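Section 3.1 - Work completed
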Amino acid sequence: MNIPKAGIIYNEIKPIACRVAKELQDKLRATGWDVHLATGVGGILGYSRPDSPVCHTPMDKLAPPGFDEQMSFAIVLGGDGTVLSAFRQVAPSGIPLLTVNTGHMGFLTEIYLNQLTSALEQVTKGEYEIEERAMLLVQLVRDEHIWWEALCLNEMVLHREPLTCMCHFEIQIGHHAPVDIAADGVIISTPTGSTAYSLSAGGTVVTPGAPVLQLMPICPHSLASRALIFNESEPVKVFPATPNQLVMVLDGNAGCYVLPEDQIRIERSRYSAKFIRLQQPEFFRILREKLGWGLPHIAKPTSVELP
């Protein structure tokens, strides 16, 4: 008889996440589950150094011990940062995640802590849907060799360090002719990432199921350089057309230095982020609740009676 297996990934710097992780482990084990615990730190790749730019852990080797294709699901306890880190660890194994908000915004989380008991019962019975979200494969190529690579769910950002001067970027999308963009930086985002840094930089919101990616210049020095939506099947090459060293950041917590002769390759990954949904996903509701999108305006009085 095969013992069902589940995982728990939690934010180790939040006491409530640590406590709930242990309680969940005990509860699942008491009902016959094989449970594995891990922290979100394994998916935070950190930054390479100029003298040591190689990412020594391949992207498909980040899974914590016990997290493999036989795992039915994993529960994430934390905020959006922990969710992003968790998917970098488990996406290559295809493990679906139930995301539980112990943070603030929780834009990527499915439930709050006070809903966890009923949600756990539902998930262990298999009564849920899986929503797949596109992820990006990002590689730094130097002298025709891959020096650094990682997965990301939100976006890739390339900019100066410090972010004070304008740069030039030569960008080629698919088979199309390269374009030159003068800006403080550039963002390549997934539909999921369209509500993150890209939105703050003036990009448009893209619904999660749209098969597209978005190019967003950061503070461009041209009225002609604006957000561009393109097919996710088209790979992107970015050449830093500047003599200065740049910094590449993925999902806000992993990255590497980029030298003038380097090339960055971006494409949709063959791995997807699998979100457990306890009810049919309703993206517009999340936009309304988290970002205030589409809320009705308060009507102004048509007349004012003067004293």
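Second construct:
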Amino acid sequence: MQARLFQLDAFTSRRFAGNPAAVMLFDNYPDEGTLQALAAENNLAETAFIVSDGDDFRIRWFTPTVEVSLCGHATLASAAVVLERLEPARDAVVFRSASGPLPVHRSERGYVMDFPVRQCTRTEPPEGLAKALGTSFEEVLWDGFNFVVRFAAADKVRGLSPDLAAIARMPCAGVIVTAPGDGEHDCVSRYFAPAKGIPEDPVTGGAHCALTPYWAGRLGKRELHAFQASARGGELRCRMRGDRVELEGSCVFYLEGIAQW
């Protein structure tokens, strides 16, 4: 078997930054075991598998170890593949996913994704969270999938060196850490998801489905300039649209070829 394979750096305008994503194109999906094996072989935070479906595309996302219900950076990369390589005359595409239809359109900065909001509610921290993070924090929230941990200052987020094995044992998909921004950014964040096979995700669209309404409410803004402070780093423009959030970013192509197995 074979499939077209693309690798892009998402949420960045320069190569070797942002979050690398693989995108693979099929006429029809192979079995789930094959998809998981391909994602493990690609060994990136996520691989997106897309299939043409009329004017739209179906999309599924896999980490090296599990399938996930939503992935922002691999959707952004998939939009770049469709709109730059497969159908460059188009300005928009809709991906049909486990999280519903996800429209994406071109913008001056790259592409704008329309994603569902994840509302945060305050919760008690799980046992061992402060020890796992190596420091105290201001509050803990729950977004339905992840614990969201707020710190007082951006340098606390940037300087974290957490115990990933301890985080992997916690009852959550992952831990988002965040603080008010410094410099030009409204907020900063990082995302640790070792239970999903992702020790630290470089830039996470799904996390900003929760961070956007949270920080929009705290800061009294409808639009945010966000930075994910991983080693690679990445930028997002985030906007509230009722019960949806717009996530805007750019992509850089790194690799194009044919995968065979």
